[in-house]
Amino acid sequence: MNVLRRILFVCLGGICSFLVFSLISDISSPAIAKTNAYLIGSFDTPGYAHGVAVAGTKAYIADGARGLQIVDVSTPSKPKFLSSVPSDARCVTIVGNMAYVATGASGLQIIDVTRPSDPKLLSSFETPGISVGVAVVGTTAYVADGSSGLQIIDISKPSSPTLLGGFDTLGSASGVAVVGATAYVADGSSGLQIINVSNPSSPILLGSLDTPGYAFGVAAVGTMAYLAKGERGLQVIDVSTPLKPKLLDNVSGDARGVTVVGARVYIAGGVDGIQVVDVPRWTQTRHIRVYNTPGIAVDVAVAGTLAYVADGASGLQVVDVSTP
User: Kind of pairing, strands 192-196 and 274-278?
Assistant: First the structure.
């Protein structure tokens, strides 16, 4: 009988401890409402999917050593291979009929994808570092070039790109986003670097924010930057005053890549798959849709209610992220 009483006491103590912990958690963070996203279709690329972009009914996958893979997703449940371009593809951006691919030690590739089934390599530009990210604004490409920081390239003549300038960041540039004349660089162990690129030949550091973790990717909209910091989660940063960026919030979980569409933030969460966070205001309830992809989610692109996930060794995953 004494043994039973002791067991009962321990169990009740555990329940009380759990309830207290739950109450503290609820008080210290915004309310979270979780729902599940669900898989629509997938395509097992031959390499390791590092990055993805979507334009119309085509998905473009930066597939590591297997280059750029172009897939027809007009029927999302049955993606179909169209073509590929050899390289060491780490990131891809589509603007018009052009694909801009960060290709590691080989720098930047510019590919004409007017006919996705028959892409044409127009040029390659060898950067000094290891190019792993690329953003394009107008006739300028901004390359996250690893230990060589930010490289700025004139692409007005796609067949003969030329270097405009560069900025050697403190860390290892892993991702880049550009708003107006400001480039936001995910700089590895050095966090976020904010750079004025109004004069591409002479970029100027405006400010930085070094928080714990390793910055893999970044998105920027208006006066907000969203920094994917691996196991430290997604960091939401007010950059309205670039000289003094301010950390506003943190979304827990793994974060390797991030895309923002309207009031939704789409997070590629490594082994955790993807998270879709509704955050019209960061103080309000968060509505989160989650899907645990089979691989390592490192990048995500969005078209309508579908998220296209670069899922490492598991290739492309197409996930429905519409509101239930």
Answer: unpaired
Number of domains observed in the structure of the chain: 1
How many Å apart are CA 230 and CA 268, to the nearest integer? 10
19 part of a folded domain: no
> Which residue type sits at 266?
Y
281: helix, coil or strand?
coil
Residue 5 scores a pLDDT above 50: no
The CATH number of the domain holding residue 241 is: 2.130.10.10
**DSSP character for 255?**
B
C-beta separation of 72 from 58 below 8 A? yes
Mean pLDDT value of segment 266-280 = 89
180 within a domain of the structure (yes/no): yes
Q: Cβ distance 120 to 126 under 8 Å?
A: no
Q: Band of the pLDDT at 4, cuts 50, 70, 90?
A: very low
Q: Quick check: 182 and 196 in contact, CB under 8 A?
A: yes
Residue 232 CA to residue 213 CA, distance in Å, equals 6
Burial-class residue 21 by CB neighbours within 10 Å (0-12, 13-18, 19+).
exposed
Residue 72 is predicted with a pLDDT of 98
- Tens digit of pLDDT for each residue in 187-217? 999 999 999 999 999 999 999 999 899 999 9
Q: How confident is the model at residue 318 (pLDDT cuts 50, 70, 90)?
A: very high
Among residues 154, 132, 161, 127, which one has the least CA distance to residue 144? 132
Helix, strand, or coil here: 104?
strand
pTM of the model: 0.89
* Structure tokens that stand for 68 in this block: 């750029």
